[in-house]
Automatic annotation (TrEMBL):
One Pfam family named in its UniProt record: DAO
Name of the featured protein: FAD dependent oxidoreductase domain-containing protein
Taxonomic source organism: Domibacillus iocasae
Entries under Gene3D superfamilies matching the protein: D-Amino Acid Oxidase, subunit A, domain 2, FAD/NAD(P)-binding domain
Gene Ontology CC entries for this record: cytoplasm
Domain FAD dependent oxidoreductase: from-to ranges: 30-385
């Protein structure tokens, strides 16, 4: 599958990447992970100290799939807002899910990043979520109330107060705390390198196919014919999983991003807050370690990479215009140094999935679909590992494709 096109930014920030061999022999292990994007990288990291014998394989190189096209915003708020998730799943399930996202970011900061051999440039940032127009004010108010009631640190901004944060303002906005920005390419490489250092066997440039999955385990055939036998398989193939299992809850669309030239003075942008809005699809923006602006959005409802890419130049121009609308002082001084398009999946019901299918026993499909792909991968990988080692976690069944959870009694 053609996952992305254009001129990517993150791959230019890290050129001395570790490299790994391709598969050249038959092998056996306890767990094989297919896919070394951020989902497979998180899973390898979670398994590295489990005592299990683990293999991680990718048909490209590490982080060369969607994880290099990612814009690196880590937010506990989801594309499905908390008050909307409460409508769909009830208060307990929705609030627990939001706290799980929040905790995943905190754990990344406190435990994971300090242990990585590659610095992923994680910086804690507040997020500013604004009403695109006056019809959306109620959405902001409902979200503010839902977050506040659930115990999150959230601040409501009227038009005048938003002006203290940014050069443009809208009638309503909220500030949430506990989010972060990251370099997703370095993060994925850091997780894989940490796993490798701890003994996980990593292979690149080897496409693999499921040969057999049964009660005794899973057999994977590598390009070249070698077989890998494992007790369990974790498929972390990103959006390409849809070529194998066609999960009905998943939809593939297209998204776009640009990264500007470095900007000397960003003092008009208080605390480099990460910005997003209530319109769907939405524009969003963040800054980078070298003082560039990343702006993304303008999603198109097409899974077709040819149609996606035909629009790439026009979309880059539109994204730069939107940066200039938000920050008029930059008009005429910025350009898209980098610009790309990418396939992008989400689910109909707004939640990521741990897929288990009767026809593929002993296998887990990690589908961290949605705008919070990294955050989802962080905790879904942990849930899968806990399931494999026999630790029960009620959250696991909420992310099953059947969405099993305790319904509320009203
Ligand atoms: C423009 C854009 C912006 C985004 N912004 C954000 C953001 O700000 N924050 C966020 O959290 N998420 C964001 N996302 C989503 C995020 O990129 C994805 O959720 C995430 O990268 C998915 O990671 P993954 O590991 O599941 O997939 P991938 O990174 O695609 O990794 C899957 C890997 O599996 C390998 N593979 C597939 N099939 C096989 C096979 N048969 N054999 C061997 N290997 C195989 C592939 O080569 C690939 O490397 C964005 C996405 C796009 C497109």
């Amino acid at each position: 599958m053609d996952l992305k096109s254009g001129n990517l930014y993150w791959t230019n920030t890290f050129k001395e990447t570790p490299s790994y061999p391709f598969v050249e022999e038959d092998m056996e292990c306890d767990v094989v992970i297919i896919g070394a994007g951020v989902s497979g990288a998180c899973t390898a990291y979670e398994l590295k100290d489990s005592g299990l014998d683990v293999i991680l394989i990718d048909k490209r190189t590490v982080a060369a799939g969607s994880s290099s096209a990612n814009t690196g915003l880590l937010q506990y708020s989801n594309d499905q807002l908390l008050h909307e998730a409460i409508q769909s799943f009830g208060k307990k399930a929705a609030v627990d899910h939001y706290w799980r996202c929040f905790d995943a970011i905190s754990r990344l900061r406190d435990e994971i990043v300090p242990s990585l051999p590659i610095d992923p440039e994680m910086i804690m940032r507040d997020s500013l979520f604004f009403a695109t127009d006056e019809d959306e004010i109620e959405t902001i108010q409902k979200e503010y109330s839902a977050l506040k009631e659930a115990g999150f640190e959230v601040e409501y901004l009227e038009e005048d107060e938003m002006k203290k944060w940014l050069p443009f303002s809208r009638e309503a906005a909220i500030i949430t705390k506990g989010d972060a920005e990251v370099n997703p390419y370095k993060l994925t490489h850091g997780l894989v390198k940490a796993a490798s250092d701890a003994g996980v066997r990593i292979y690149e440039q080897t496409e693999v196919f499921l040969k057999k999955a049964g009660e005794g385990g899973v057999v994977i055939r590598a390009a070249g014919g070698h077989l890998i036998k494992a007790k369990k398989a974790i498929f972390a193939q990103g959006y390409e999983t849809q070529e194998t299992i066609k999960e009905k809850n998943a939809v593939i669309e297209s998204s776009y991003a640009v990264v500007t030239n470095p900007i000397d003075d960003l003092s008009f942008w208080k605390d480099n807050v990460m910005i997003w809005e209530s319109a769907r699809p939405y524009f969003y923006a963040r800054t980078t370690a070298d003082k560039r602006i990343v702006m993304g959005g303008l999603d198109e409802p097409t899974p077709n990479p040819d149609i996606r890419d035909q629009k790439m130049i026009a979309k880059s121009d539109e994204l730069i215009k939107e940066v200039e609308n938000w920050f008029p002082q930059l008009r005429g001084t910025i350009q898209a140094d980098y610009g790309w398009s990418g396939s992008f999946a989400h689910t109909h019901d707004g939640q990521p999935i741990i897929g288990q299918y009767d026809r593929v026993p002993n296998s887990y499909f990690l589908l961290g679909y949605g705008g919070n792909g990294i955050v989802y991968s962080l905790f879904l990988s942990k849930l899968i590992v806990r399931h494999i080692i026999g630790e029960k976690d009620a959250a696991f069944s909420f992310y099953s494709k059947e969405r099993i959870y305790e319904p509320e009694v009203i």
